[in-house]
């Protein structure tokens, strides 16, 4: 009997520690293309940025926060759009989980677009059509 309650406690603790896309608590669309990643630490975000620079793969990084209402509104769209643009690399980075590497972010959500390893565009705020058009432009 006591094993069951201990298991329940461990599950609850691990749920509280979820980070990245899983930590948002949102019901997000699945991504079968493997082009959607989550940076849940400064180290992970630095590795992703290095990979974007070296591979020169077109990419978009969505800088958001779990407490940001607008971020929660646009994130499901961001995930859904990752399925429409399989050649683009999509990254979600929570500014609270990556505090050192996101110091330059002043507003959430902020989207950075990369082409040939360089940041070429920035979009601040929400707007499904605006985001779609920027993704189309940079894909």
UniProtKB/TrEMBL annotation:
Protein name stated in the entry: Thioredoxin
InterPro entries: Thioredoxin-like_sf, Thioredoxin_domain, TRL33
Location of region: Disordered: 1-38
Bias (Low complexity): 25-36
Top-level taxon of the source organism: Eukaryota
Cross-referenced Pfam families: Thioredoxin
Thioredoxin domain location: 50-131
């Amino acid at each position: 009997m006591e094993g069951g309650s201990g298991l329940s406690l461990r599950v609850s603790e691990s749920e509280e520690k979820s980070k990245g896309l899983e930590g948002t608590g949102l019901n997000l669309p699945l991504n079968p293309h493997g082009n959607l990643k989550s940076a849940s630490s400064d180290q992970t975000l630095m590795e992703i940025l290095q990979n974007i620079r070296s591979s020169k793969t077109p990419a978009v990084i969505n800088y958001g926060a779990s407490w940001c209402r607008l971020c929660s509104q646009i994130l499901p769209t961001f995930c859904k759009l990752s399925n429409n643009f399989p050649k683009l690399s999509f990254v979600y980075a929570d500014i609270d989980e990556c505090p050192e590497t996101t110091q330059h972010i002043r507003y959430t959500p902020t989207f950075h677009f990369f082409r040939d390893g360089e940041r070429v565009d920035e979009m601040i705020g929400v707007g499904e059509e605006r985001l779609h058009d920027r993704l189309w432009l940079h894909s």
